[in-house]
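Severity: low
Component: inverse-folding endpoint
Summary: output formatting inconsistent between runs
Steps to reproduce: submit the following structure tokens with default settings.
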């Protein structure tokens, strides 16, 4: 044999090609498949066979392998197709499922894609996107504005900022504790009066009249802010101390002075619960209101009395001696004790029958007590609920043996010594023994085990009893166990010290457990605290949101009276941390003395959080090597500063590696901290600032920047300060006069106060006067100083945007434009009303641009809150000003611009540039750097965006969820073997306790990715980055029908199908797994602890609502004439237009397709339900003169009836029109006076109820039926945080206090749009109703406003005269066919047969 020569991976040696063809044939299904050993499939070969292939000149192939058995198996397999194969080394391919892979890919020949040079096409596409960014978005104009402004170098003094943060938080805590102290002293004073003159008056929360309750944004529910109500235990004596009504006045004063206080309450030791403000407990959460006192704030109550760690083991008898009632009662007692304990405690729960049952097979839960984390409490609670009654006798001896073993393992230190902590066994049983000798055996076990523990264990026994059944002996046994009465059974103890005497408590009912079982902890003989205690944040189950409980025990002399508590809005406590800085080089976080994180940039804002926070260590967020040592210093030392060097994160997948070679390999990270004392003996919190020194200087706008003439500011509260041309931009209150200024919460000095106070006209006017002031004489209304300069700078783009509405080449596809600064200033055009909760820095379009500075960044598709349907946002960064200098990706970013485009515009862009994409076998697509599709043939096909709800569906994905692994599984399977192109990544989401799996694609790759040589060849594909963007262009040429590629995806939710395995080369859809906790430590499992933390999810904030009355009276900002577009391509991507081509059954093609609004024909299906639930009846579609409706045969009688009805309706209409045309609803404003319903505050408007009775006008101006459920809901299967605590001051947008409940519905059956919960009453043909689509599960950002300006021959802005002209208040008929009348008639079909 001649010496072999190494063949280049890209070589074309004919013998190698022949061998590959033979191997491919051998591995095809049906060809030699029975000869392939099963051991060689999947990963088996890959573990032993890895590297190179050599070929000699004499047709011999040598395959190297280090494993002898692998050599033999490969030899026997491969010789089937080639007799001269020699195996003696490492190979680089894998066998399994009919695939044969190596890391070589085919050359990217243009002829495979119909002559398309994909790199050249990607460059052309990049040019178009860059032009769109520069001209339509206005990025070059905005950058020129900033380049013309004066900038100055700044050097932030973070020490001063740390002082301010610490001082602010300390002051807040001190004020809260002073409030608590006042309440505590007042209760103690009242008790002294109670001794002489009993204070016992009761006002039951469960029987409060609902008429006394009013909606409150501060509390997020209906409350009575004028009184305190009580939860009274059923068995309580009527003479017990009850200070509730006497506390009302002091509670009211505190609530008025400090709106950040949510609940104030007093819990007496007898179980009476007083709470302010008064409210009815929701029946869904608390079906048994009379028993609610047993659960409300019990953990806060116990932890404030005994803040030290408690060790408790709960043992539940579930043997055959218990009746069904007794067993149910035993589980209620166990749940009560469990819910009374907190995260500082260690707990164990076991079931006892003939054997011991543990909560799980995890060794922690059957060997020792574990920290009672939120997850552990849920797990234990589920174990108790699922515990079944057994049909065997209870082995009490075994139970106590195991209980003491667990306690001993818990109390024994690592060095083998016993700690001084005490423990408690809660034994719940009937106490029935199998023999009389069992009692002595049980006491003997207790004496021996507790003696070894130096009698540090107390035992409480709870005897569950059926009412009326005597159990004398059982009670005696349980009494002796609780008292550890060894002498009664002549049992000797090995330890002479006295025992901790427990208590035996008979229980006959699950009602009033707080009075019967509530003091279970008293047998530990621990000293009660008399100090205020700040607990970790908890979810408020009543009023929603997250609160921070602070509690303080109350005493009379040494007698415990109860616990006084206040719940503080966590959003107020941490708002200084939450909105500290939007500079990527510094941020702040807040922890407690145990290193648990209260606030961190990776966590969601508390104001939008509605799930129980995960109290996890800050070390899970700060992943720098060596941070644990710094954390120890942070906890031990009251203040300090530590600097460390960490490797620079050079993200080669975003920018070419050459950009990073000029930078230092390390950066300096400094942690500065200070403990928050609040004049307490022990500081509860620690404020930490992390600053990053990357070697670049920072600049800021000079204070001399001012708003120039011609750029007058318009504030977004158009409902309070309307302009001359206020209009509706689809679903959003807007104006075309100017861009509108919005200030996020981060722009204010007191963000929490801004979010929770109601904005009024005078307040908004104060903002504008201050921001427009060039003299410096106007006082600051609470806005941060730097925001003023930002507002002056971004307002200068206004004229450019207004010009583009009329001259922009893509105006008919543009929804809106906007710009946002890191300080929270936002400008949008058209000027739009926004929700106060909106924060641009929390959106995908903003963060995507910040992560890829200098690039045109595209978001994945998402549903536009403003009504434009599915859109994609392009965004781009704006750099600090430089005069005559080029900008680079490492320059300081001062703003981010965005433009919303319709989703289908991008597919239109593809097919116009690449007509070949319309061929049946060719699929072109665009995707972002996470693999989510932006343009794809499947996203423009009819019915492609309608999510099915019926049982026979297969779980069609919404556009925002469509990933390359969903639509192109073959490509996804193949590209995962290109290790330099894509990576599957993991991160921990501590917001919803999940592990997220996602894709990250390399946008800096300067090549074409195509099929692997030994990959699936049923479809050829080519994929390449679009230069200067975060997007990719792909083309697939499918040559056959059979494809075996598959990516596992759940069609129900985002749960991964296999959470215990993730391989880089195995295709799966983006998904999530539960974040698992190590019960032994209360921390993450070691495997998951190695993952980085996920960035904060994009926030989904609903649009600011406008009352239907106002919306119906205002004209649309743009006149959209979809009928102008006569072809599908012309209609494609136009704002609010859809090409209608399928009938209502979603199958039958229309005889004459047409272009119509989305409300008439969503996703190409006539009458399909939109995501906004605002579809229009078929009657409107008649205006197109294109539809022929099918109906059942109607005989002459039916025709006569219909004719009579129509004549009658016409007569009634004419009569009413004549009678009421001069009614009070007709505008009487003088000629020339601005006729806008928004001229004044809404509180100044007359209520519609006062407009008169007998209104019979027909209001048909609007066909929209607003969704009763927001389309931005988060799927319930995901643990997301999307609910809002309150209306946040937007109640002024409707004349009534509660727009939904108090909205006026006139007694006229033909009024449309008055009742949001009813369909439009226009006559419609019967068709299958469609339920609203399920909530979107994708985590996508929403644009800052709602739909935007569009212009074309068919879409043009209304003239000022048209915009200011109000819709008259008398009879209005929409533009339908001539001589048509819409009436509310009921047609009865008569069978002529």
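Observed output (run 2 of 3):
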């Amino acid at each position: 044999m001649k010496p072999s020569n190494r063949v280049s991976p890209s070589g074309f040696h004919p013998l190698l090609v022949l061998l590959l063809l033979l191997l491919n044939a051998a591995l095809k299904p049906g060809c030699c498949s029975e000869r392939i050993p099963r051991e060689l499939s999947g990963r088996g070969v890959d573990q032993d066979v890895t590297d190179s292939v050599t070929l000699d000149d004499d047709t011999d192939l040598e395959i190297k392998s280090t494993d002898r058995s692998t050599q033999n198996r490969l030899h026997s397999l491969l010789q089937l197709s080639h007799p001269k194969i020699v195996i003696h080394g490492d190979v680089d391919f894998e066998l399994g499922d009919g695939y044969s892979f190596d890391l070589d890919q085919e050359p990217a020949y243009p002829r495979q894609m119909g002559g398309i040079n994909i790199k050249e096409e990607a460059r052309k596409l990049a040019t178009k996107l860059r032009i769109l960014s520069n001209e339509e978005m206005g990025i070059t104009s905005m950058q020129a504005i900033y380049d013309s402004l004066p900038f100055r170098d700044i050097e932030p003094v973070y020490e001063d900022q740390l002082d301010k943060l610490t001082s602010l938080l300390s002051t807040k805590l001190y004020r809260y504790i002073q409030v608590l102290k006042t309440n505590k002293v007042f209760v103690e004073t009242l008790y002294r009066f109670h001794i002489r003159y009993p204070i016992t008056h009761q006002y039951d929360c469960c029987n409060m009249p609902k008429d006394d309750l009013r909606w409150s944004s501060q509390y997020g529910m209906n409350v009575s802010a004028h009184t305190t109500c009580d939860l009274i235990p059923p068995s309580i004596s009527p003479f017990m101390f009850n200070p509730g009504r006497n506390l009302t006045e002091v509670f009211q004063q505190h609530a008025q002075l400090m709106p950040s206080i949510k609940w104030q309450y007093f819990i007496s030791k007898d179980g009476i619960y007083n709470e302010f403000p008064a409210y009815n407990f929701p029946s869904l959460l608390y079906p048994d209101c009379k028993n609610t006192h047993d659960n409300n704030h019990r953990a806060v109550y116990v932890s404030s009395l005994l803040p030290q760690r408690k060790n408790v083991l709960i043992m539940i008898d579930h043997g055959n001696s218990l009746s069904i009632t007794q067993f149910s009662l035993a589980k209620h007692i166990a749940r009560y004790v469990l819910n009374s304990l907190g995260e500082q405690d260690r707990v164990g729960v076991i079931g006892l029958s003939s054997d011991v049952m543990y909560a799980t097979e995890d060794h922690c839960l059957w060997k020792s007590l574990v920290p009672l984390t939120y997850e552990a409490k849920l797990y234990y609670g589920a174990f108790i609920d699922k515990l079944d009654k057994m049909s065997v006798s209870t082995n009490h001896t075994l139970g106590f043996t195991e209980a003491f073993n667990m306690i001993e393992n818990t109390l024994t230190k690592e060095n083998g010594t016993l700690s001084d902590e005490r423990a408690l066994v809660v034994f719940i049983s009937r106490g029935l023994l199998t023999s009389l000798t069992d009692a002595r055996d049980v006491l003997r076990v207790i004496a021996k085990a507790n003696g070894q523990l130096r009698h540090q264990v107390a035992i409480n026994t709870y005897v569950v009893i059926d009412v009326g059944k005597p159990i004398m002996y059982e009670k005696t046994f349980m009494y002796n166990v609780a008292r550890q009465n060894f002498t009664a059974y002549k049992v000797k103890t090995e330890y002479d010290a006295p025992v901790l005497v427990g208590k035996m408590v008979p229980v006959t009912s699950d009602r009033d457990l707080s009075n019967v079982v509530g003091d279970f902890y008293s047998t530990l003989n621990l000293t009660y605290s008399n100090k205020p205690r700040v607990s970790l944040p908890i979810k408020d189950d009543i009023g929603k949101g997250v609160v921070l409980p602070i509690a303080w025990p109350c005493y009379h002399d040494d007698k415990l009276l109860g616990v006084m508590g206040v719940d503080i809005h966590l959003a107020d406590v941490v708002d200084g941390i939450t909105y500290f800085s939007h500079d990527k080089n510094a941020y702040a976080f807040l922890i407690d003395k145990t290193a648990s994180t209260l606030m961190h940039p990776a966590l969601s804002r508390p104001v939008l959080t509605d799930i129980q926070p995960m109290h996890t260590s800050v070390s899970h967020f700060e992943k720098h090597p060596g941070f644990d040592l710094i954390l120890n210093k942070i906890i031990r030392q009251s203040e300090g500063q530590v600097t460390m060097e960490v490797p620079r994160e050079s993200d080669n997948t975003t920018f070419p590696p050459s950009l990073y070679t000029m930078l230092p390999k390390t950066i300096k990270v400094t942690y500065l901290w200070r403990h928050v004392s609040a004049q307490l003996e022990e500081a509860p919190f620690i404020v930490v600032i992390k600053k990053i020194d990357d070697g670049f200087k920072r600049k800021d706008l000079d204070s001399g920047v001012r708003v120039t003439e011609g750029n007058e500011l318009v504030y977004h509260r158009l409902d309070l300060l309307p302009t001359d041309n206020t209009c509706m931009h689809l679903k959003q209150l807007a104006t075309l006069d100017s861009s509108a200024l919005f200030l996020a919460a981060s722009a204010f000095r007191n963000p929490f106060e801004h979010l929770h106070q109601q904005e009024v006209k005078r307040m908004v006017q104060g903002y504008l006067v201050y921001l427009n002031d060039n003299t410096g004489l106007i006082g600051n209304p609470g806005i941060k100083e730097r925001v003023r300069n930002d507002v002056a700078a971004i307002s200068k783009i206004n004229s450019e945007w207004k010009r583009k509405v009329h001259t922009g080449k893509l105006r008919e596809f543009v929804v809106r434009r906007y710009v946002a600064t890191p300080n929270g200033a936002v400008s949008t055009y058209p000027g739009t009303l926004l929700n106060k909760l909106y924060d641009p820095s929390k959106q995908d379009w903003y963060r995507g641009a910040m992560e890829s500075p200098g690039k045109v960044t595209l978001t994945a598709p998402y549903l536009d809150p403003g009504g434009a349907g599915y859109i994609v946002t392009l965004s781009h960064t704006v750099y600090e000003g430089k005069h005559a200098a080029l900008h680079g990706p490492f320059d300081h970013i001062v703003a981010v611009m965005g433009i919303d485009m319709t989703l289908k515009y991008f597919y239109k862009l593809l097919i116009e540039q690449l007509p070949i994409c319309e061929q049946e076998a060719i699929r072109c697509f665009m995707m972002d750097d996470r693999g989510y599709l932006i343009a794809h043939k499947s996203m423009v096909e009819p019915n492609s965006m309608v999510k099915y709800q019926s049982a026979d569906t297969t779980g069609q994905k919404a556009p925002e969820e469509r990933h390359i692994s969903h639509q192109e599984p073959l490509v996804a399977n193949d590209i995962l073997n290109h290790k330099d192109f894509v990576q599957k990544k993991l991160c921990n989401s501590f917001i919803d306790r999940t592990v997220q799996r996602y894709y990250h694609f390399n946008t800096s790759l300067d090549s074409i990715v195509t099929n692997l040589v030994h990959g699936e060849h049923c479809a050829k594909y080519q994929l390449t980055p679009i230069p200067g963007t975060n997007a990719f262009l792909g083309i697939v040429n499918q040559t056959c029908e059979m494809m075996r590629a598959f990516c596992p995806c759940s069609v129900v939710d985002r749960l991964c199908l296999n959470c215990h395995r993730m391989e880089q080369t195995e295709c799966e859809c983006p998904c999530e797994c539960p974040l698992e906790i190590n019960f032994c430590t209360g921390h993450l499992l070691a495997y998951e602890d190695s993952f980085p933390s996920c960035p904060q999810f994009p926030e989904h904030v609903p649009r600011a609502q406008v009352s239907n009355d106002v919306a119906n009276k205002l004209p649309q900002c743009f006149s959209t004439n979809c009928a102008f577009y006569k072809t599908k391509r012309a209609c494609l991507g136009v704002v609010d237009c859809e090409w209608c081509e399928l009938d209502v059954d979603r199958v039958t093609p229309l005889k004459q397709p047409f272009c119509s609004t989305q409300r008439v024909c969503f996703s190409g299906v006539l009458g399909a339900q939109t995501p906004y639930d605002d579809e229009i009846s078929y009657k409107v579609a008649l205006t197109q003169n294109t539809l022929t409706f099918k109906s059942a045969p109607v005989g002459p009688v039916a025709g006569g009836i219909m004719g009579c009805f129509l004549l009658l309706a016409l007569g009634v209409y004419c009569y009413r029109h004549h009678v009421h045309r001069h009614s009070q609803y007709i505008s009487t404003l003088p000629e020339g006076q601005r006729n806008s319903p928004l001229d004044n505050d809404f509180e100044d408007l007359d209520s519609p109820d006062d407009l008169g009775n007998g209104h019979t006008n027909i209001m048909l101006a609007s066909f929209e039926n607003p969704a009763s459920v927001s389309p931005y809901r988060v799927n319930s299967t995901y643990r997301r945080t999307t609910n809002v605590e309150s209306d946040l001051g937007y109640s002024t947008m409707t004349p009534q206090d509660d727009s939904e409940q108090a909205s006026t519905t006139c007694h006229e059956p033909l009024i449309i749009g008055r009742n949001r919960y009813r369909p439009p009453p226009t006559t419609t043909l019967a068709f299958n109703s469609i339920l609203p689509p399920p909530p979107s599960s994708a985590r996508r950002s929403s644009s800052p406003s709602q739909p935007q300006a569009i212009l074309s021959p068919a879409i043009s802005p209304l003239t000022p005269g048209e915009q200011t002209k109000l819709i008259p208040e008398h009879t209005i008929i929409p533009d339908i066919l001539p001589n048509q009348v819409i009436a509310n008639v009921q047609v009865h079909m008569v069978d002529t047969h």
